[in-house]
Amino acid sequence: MSVKVQLLDIDNRPTEFDKRAGIIRNGIDNAYAERIERFINNSVTARSASNVLSSYIVGKGFGDEENKTIVGKKGTTLLKFTQKVAKNISKQRGVFIHINYNMNYGYDSFDVIPYTHCRLGEKDDVKYNGKIGVCDNFTNKRLKVDDIDFINVFNPNKDVIDAQVEFAGSWDKYKGQILYVNLDDEYNYALSTIDAVQYDCDSEAQSSIYKNRILRNGFSGKQIIITKPLIGKIEDYNTPEEYREAGDERENFKKVTTGFYGAENAGEGMHVELNHDSDKFDDAIKIIDVPSTVNDKLYESTELSVFKNILMAFHSLPDGMVRSTESMFGNSGESLKEMKIGYQENTSMLRTEVEQVIQMLMRNFKAPKEVKIVPLIDEESIKPEPKTVENEADNKD
Question: Bridge-partner residues for 113, per DSSP?
Fold first, then answer.
């Protein structure tokens, strides 16, 4: 009998076409995007870092008036729409935008579709995805084409739109198009911000679960109460009633002991009955303290390494921007100011990418506007005062 061993590349992310569902899978199990969302949401560092990155992408929006512009069918404002875009970019490095047209071929409305609800359709002979599938349960192993709503890929060409409207039957039946912004366009799907550190995110979550289990179930300041047997064999008693009374007393002792620790700490004590020949009280009942097995230092270095790796993935986010330290606030918070300015520079390319998408949408909107993102940090206003140096030559004069 021969045994075949297959080595699996855990970092491999195949994006193959699924004939049954009519979509290109995102990952071998078609659950890459969903797994990324779970890893980020379960990691306190990744979730915090994602929120910070998102806020630096959006900045202050586009100004008070422009921020209030309604761009979505459900009353979504331009600011809210941009925040949705930024959240998807900060996590998945991609975003799906649904665009509805008016009869003048302008954008009547647009809004973000959850990233996990979208998959690319089959490619044609020239490697072009003509459709994007939309479904809220792509991880369903029995998924079929009929379970998915297929919408045309973004193409603002008037002839293309006319043909799509005609195929749909009318403008009222036309579903519009979906624009997929992929910051890693060399791949079918973007690689997540945490792609290289997804297991660090999971490690942080598992570490938290492990410590919780130790605290709940491990030896943490517990006690063992040792007594003589509180009940003997039935033949040791004169009557069955005496045997039952001894049993009731035994149960009452346990209840009293539990009450001594309190309901919330009922698991902190253990009762053990041992045979004793001595009649001394100290031999009849003993209380033994069990030292704690919780070791806070055990994973300290690993957790710090994981923490730094995750922050590095989020465009080298300074740890002082997600975890405060006493020294950071020295010198009137100058260190924090420098961190904010530095991180704004680190994220400038992402902000530009998002800004260009918003500008394209707003130029073709039913009420066209020129917009530009206002950075979160006004660098000029928080720059430290320049130090004055006395001119020694002037002093001599």
Answer: 96
Which of the four pLDDT bands, split at 50, 70 and 90, describes residue 9? very low
Domain ranges of the chain: 13-217+296-391, 221-290
Task: Find the range with the poorest average confidence among 192-206, 332-346, 379-393.
Answer: 379-393
Cβ neighbors of 159 (< 8 A, separation 6 or more) are none
Strand order in the sheet with 131-134: 107-113, 94-101, 177-182, 149-153, 131-134, 118-120
pLDDT digits (tens, 9 = 90+) for 193-227: 999 999 999 999 888 777 766 666 654 556 666 66
Q: Which residue's entry shows tokens 């929120």?
A: 51
Predicted confidence at residue 244, as pLDDT, reads 79
As a whole number of angstroms, the distance between CA 381 and CA 130 comes to 48
Return the sign of the alpha-carbon dihedral for residues 339, 342, 343, 344: positive
Q: Which of 115-119, 320-324, 393-397 has the lowest mean pLDDT?
A: 393-397
Q: What type of residue sits at position 79?
A: L
SS (H, E, C) the chain: CCCCCCCCCCCCCCCCEECCCCEECCCCCCCHHHHHHHHHHHCHHHHHHHHHHHHHHHCCCCCHHHHCCECCCCCCEHHHHHHHHHHHHHHHCEEEEEEEECCCCCEEEEEEECHHHEEEECECCCCCECEEEECCCCCCCCCCHHHCEEEEECCCCHHHHHHHHHHHCCCCCCCCEEEEEECCCCCCCCCCCCHHHHHHHHHHHHHHHHHHHHHHHCCCCEEEEEECCCCCCHHHCCCHHHHHHHHHHHHHHHHHHHHHHCHHHHHHEEEEECCCCCCCHHHHEEEEEECCCCCCCCCHHHHHHHHHHHHHHCCCCCHHHCCCCHHHHCHHHHHHHHHHHHHHHHCHHHHHHHHHHHHHHHHCECCCCCCCCCCCCCHHHHCCCCCCCCCHHHHHC
Rounded CA gap, 291 and 312, in Å?
A: 39
Q: Residue 71 — left, alpha, or beta (φ > 0 → left; ψ -120 to 50 → alpha)?
A: alpha
pLDDT at 393 over 90: no
pTM for this entry: 0.75
Helical packing angle, 334-346 and 44-58, nearest 10°:
70
